[in-house]
Design a protein that fits this description.
alpha+beta, paralog of FGE (formylglycine-generating enzyme), 3 domains, four-stranded mixed beta sheet
Length: 579
């Protein structure tokens, strides 16, 4: 029997089904043969290697010294050097571009634009982030995101939350494309609307059917229809795109794989390139003397002298500008700062694990029904009701005495009543009913002629926590973790650095404030809380100090800047070195 080289994963499944007539591999544990209906149909799918997702570069993991490696000019003492180990992973070759973001917005507009325009509004970058009180940046406000001259420039004005939403969307589009490529789904974007669109999670949980080109792959289970959908066990679908952890990002930025000999690092790096200077100091290199990144060289010097521009970038530059580091990654220093996944704490270097270091875990599980199966996916927008109430309260406080119009006052009063009712209903654990009331509040905004209606729309959109088509998740409970020794509660963000047990004045009877005994008095003596996210790398508007991968800063996860972008990462499953 002669076999041709298979052209797709689906071909492998067909081949596997045919080969079962020739021989059957047996279990080394029980001796029963795999892929046999006679033995119950337990399958051992053909799997060779994790695919490399679009845009990604493989980063071989290892150990390194994480943290600052030169003077701590800011005196923050929040990044003392320590040795950690990073597992192998994948990272985007470049920062996410304006073109990628416009592709994302177009998809959202097509799927949600008619029924849920607030979802599209939630994804819009803050183009006003370019404005400065004493600078003329209006051209950037108007042109930077959408003009084709900037399409290969890094997207900016996106918050940490928006970056995570993009990663989730990208995961689903890549996996959908894999299934279409393998002939398991039909490409039919017009049929996808509102909650009826492909996501990896809904497909794996049999809550997305879609249009099928074939019935599926061979199912060996007795009494089955003969075919089934792809499962996680098949290895065909890719892991999630996500933001890199701080340890991963810093490790990839240093690119020490180019300076290693055996198990030794033969030259320390200050920046993502060899040497300790911001200019190329290799006499043998034709780029000798040129700057290695896009940043501010000195007071008022953003691009050099006309006729000999040293970085050819007054603001950001094309994401493939300058030489890539030894992993093949572009602009890991300069151009834009980049969001990472971690919550900021000044003592992370003392508290975090040495293996896969990360702070920010909030453990969740899928909501199940009485039969133990996943609850139906959402077919409505889910708002954080309490945060929306806080937004309304702060908005009224900030605008007190400004002279709101009668229409404005009427809208605010109506929203107050709706949100208060939604909170009462939610307290009774009637979640769907409470969200119906929040949808009615959004209708009040849409139908209103008040000048503040656009502000209300934006405030509501920023407090969306789930959208139609998402599966339902909840935090794990203390009760279901009784007996565990590795964790008990869901939210471990401020574990050992900000929780009650780590607070210096916990239980002080003389302090009756809301943050009594807490280590971080947010809004008082500190800007650190559980929504403070780390960003790294330096930008077009930063001095060379911030180009050092070990430096770290933070910003609220809902805020954005003209100097912050991001790139996506993906977990490497299985062996840390590709076959």
């Amino acid at each position: 029997m002669t076999w041709k080289q298979p052209t797709s994963i689906l071909s492998l499944f067909v081949m596997m089904a045919a080969l079962t007539g020739c021989f059957k591999e047996r279990s080394g544990a029980t001796g029963w043969s795999y892929n046999s209906s006679d033995n119950g149909g337990f399958e051992k799918p053909s799997f060779f290697e994790q695919q490399t997702g679009p845009g990604l570069i493989f980063i071989e993991g290892g150990t390194y010294t994480m943290g600052q490696v030169e003077d701590d000019l800011m005196g923050s003492w929040d990044n003392a050097p320590r040795r950690v180990t990073v597992s192998s992973f994948y990272l985007d070759e470049t920062e996410v571009t304006n073109m990628f973001w416009l592709e994302y917005l177009t998809w959202l507009e097509r799927v949600y634009g008619n029924s849920f325009p607030e979802i599209v509004e939630r994804a819009l970058p803050d183009t006003l982030a370019w404005r400065e009180k004493l600078a003329y940046n209006e051209p950037m406000v108007k042109y930077y995101l959408r003009h084709p001259s900037y399409r290969d420039y890094p997207v900016v004005g996106v918050s940490w939350n928006q970056a995570n939403d993009f990663c989730k969307w990208r995961t689903d589009r890549v996996n959908e494309n894999i299934l279409i490529r393998e002939g398991l789904l039909v490409h039919n974007p017009e049929a996808q609307m509102d909650e009826e669109h492909f996501t990896t999670s809904t497909y794996l949980n049999r809550q997305y059917i879609g249009e099928r080109e074939v019935e599926g792959v061979k199912d060996f289970r007795p009494n089955s229809s003969g075919y089934r959908d792809i499962k996680l066990e098949d290895g065909l679908l890719l892991p999630d795109y996500r933001l890199p952890t701080e340890a991963e990002w810093e490790y990839a930025a240093l690119g020490l794989i180019g300076n290693s000999y055996g198990e030794l690092i033969d030259e320390r790096r200050t920046y993502p390139w060899d040497g300790h200077y911001i200019r190329n100091d290799d006499l043998r290199n034709k780029e000798y003397g040129k700057v290695n990144a896009n940043f501010v060289k000195g007071r008022g010097d953003y691009m050099g002298v006309a006729g000999a521009l040293d970085d050819a970038g007054d603001i950001t530059v094309n994401v493939r500008s300058y030489a890539a580091n030894d992993y093949g990654l572009y602009n890991m220093a300069g151009n834009v700062n980049e969001w990472v996944m971690d919550v900021y704490r000044p003592l992370s270097h003392l508290d975090n694990d040495a293996f896969r270091s990360f702070r920010g875990n909030d453990f969740q599980t899928m909501v199940k029904n009485a039969e133990g199966k996943p609850e139906d996916k959402y077919d409505y927008v889910v708002y954080d009701i309490d945060r929306t109430a806080e937004f309304i309260k702060k908005y009224k406080s900030d605008n007190r005495g400004v002279g709101l119009s009668p229409e404005d006052e009427e809208l605010l009063d109506g929203l107050d009543l709706k949100i208060e009712t939604a909170q009462e209903v939610s307290f009774k654990r009637q979640e769907e009913e409470s969200q119906v009331i929040m949808a009615e509040a959004m209708e009040l905004i849409i139908d209103s002629e008040a000048l503040i209606a656009s502000d209300m729309r934006k405030g509501f959109s920023k407090n969306i926590v789930a959208i139609p088509g998402d599966m339902r998740y909840r935090d794990v409970t203390l009760e279901e973790n009784i007996g565990r020794t590795n964790y008990r509660i869901a939210d471990n963000i401020d574990y050992r650095d900000g929780d009650i047990n780590s607070s210096v004045d916990f239980g002080n009877p003389d302090d009756a404030s809301e943050n009594s005994g807490r280590m971080y008095d947010y809004g008082g003596s500190s800007l650190v809380n559980n929504e403070s996210r780390v960003y790294k790398g330096g930008s077009w508007d930063d001095r060379a100090y911030w180009l050092v991968p070990g430096t770290r800063r933070f910003m609220d996860e809902n805020q954005s800047s003209s100097t912050i972008g991001f790139r996506c990462a993906m977990t490497r499953v299985g062996t840390p070195v590709p076959y």
